[in-house]
Amino acid sequence: MAEDTQSTITYGIFNETTEHEARVALTPDIVKRLKRSSITCMVETGAGSAAGYADEDYAAAGARVSDAETIINRAQAFGFVDRPSGDLIDRLPKGSWVIGMLGSFTDEEYVNRLERNGLVGVAIERLPRQLSSAQSMDEMTSQNSVMGYKAVLKAADAYGSFFPMMTTAAGTIRPAKVLVLGAGIAGLQAIGTARRLGAVVTAYDVRPAAKNEVLSLGAKFLELGLDFSKGQGEGGYARQLTAEEQAAQQAAVDGKAAEFDVVITTAKVPGRKPPMLLTKAGVDGLHRGAVIVDCAASDLGGNVEGSQPNQTIVTDNGVRIIGAPDLASGVATTASNLLARNVADVLAHFVHDGSLVMDPNEELDDALIVAGRVNTPAAKEEEK
């Protein structure tokens, strides 16, 4: 197939499939979308297989399917589900653009490595999600929505009874009582999914605005008797609580959790250690057979004391703790479709007149890491 001579930007995607990752950062539909913006796509062989997208699908959409080395040598921008490994960073040509969740808030050495290699990073975790122009680029929102849905299915599968009330000849089975901690994008999706499965759902979030959102979905709001009236932070996230507030919240949640059969925690903080919402005391207070799904479990910690990423732990009192940070990968086809749109829209935003331009819109500067430096107004002042 002849290449489009009008295309001046080549966008490369690698196969990121691992034991816990089935998503891909580009889908055939997005290949067609980018072609209209004069962007040619290259995809590593087998990159979309685990998500249900065959190499033939990409080729039919106009992408070139090739090996990783050819993509490295020909592309000027690269999109990722997560972020490139250190080894891959060392192989990318100087001046290349790297777009993904780069972990720039906590991994200074990684940012420095981008600098040493002369790469331009676009850290999606830094996008100002409150801006209307950034909505379609917000990977965290799209993937957290998938995560919240899958978390409920994971919990329902592990729980030893029904979620809905069932009336049978042998008697009536009461509905499961589900507690969702964190009523952001993932939490609200979890509430809606659990409600559709017939569970009685209660939720809690430190942000005052969350109460009406929880009630609007037909769930109850967990009243802790605490006042975090300034719980709303920047960009729609909950602000970080003080040590005293965290201790009060933990104690209150621990005491209330014993009433529930299933607890789903969704309070992630982009690039930072997640807040502890349920301590060992709260876990120990749950009844035998109860299930906890900790969506925030990571190497930095989780929302639940004792949770471990990608592990299921059964406590001495028979409570199952599922550390599930990669739930979106379990819905790989839809999750990839959404993620590919997010990453592609980031790329397209910086393409102007056939070139990658670093500063087309100052409102999105915070997401740029230029020569390793986070491109914030403060950083610009230091450079003057």
UniProtKB/TrEMBL annotation:
Presence of the UniProt keyword tRNA-binding in the record: no
One GO MF term attached to the UniProt entry: oxidoreductase activity
Record's catalysed reaction(s): NAD(+) + NADPH + H(+)(in) = NADH + NADP(+) + H(+)(out)
Ranges where the Alanine dehydrogenase/pyridine nucleotide transhydrogenase N-terminal domain occurs: 12-147
InterPro entries documented for this protein: Ala_DH/PNT_CS2, AlaDH/PNT_N, AlaDH/PNT_NAD(H)-bd, NAD(P)-bd_dom_sf
Gene3D superfamilies (UniProt xref): NAD(P)-binding Rossmann-like Domain
SMART domains: AlaDh_PNT_C, AlaDh_PNT_N
Any single biological process term in GO: NADPH regeneration
Pfam families: AlaDh_PNT_C (PF01262), AlaDh_PNT_N (PF05222)
Any one GO cellular component localisation term in the record: plasma membrane
Domain Alanine dehydrogenase/pyridine nucleotide transhydrogenase NAD(H)-binding span(s) in chain numbering: 156-323
Protein name in UniProt: proton-translocating NAD(P)(+) transhydrogenase
Species lineage: Bacteria, Bacillati, Actinomycetota, Actinomycetes, Bifidobacteriales
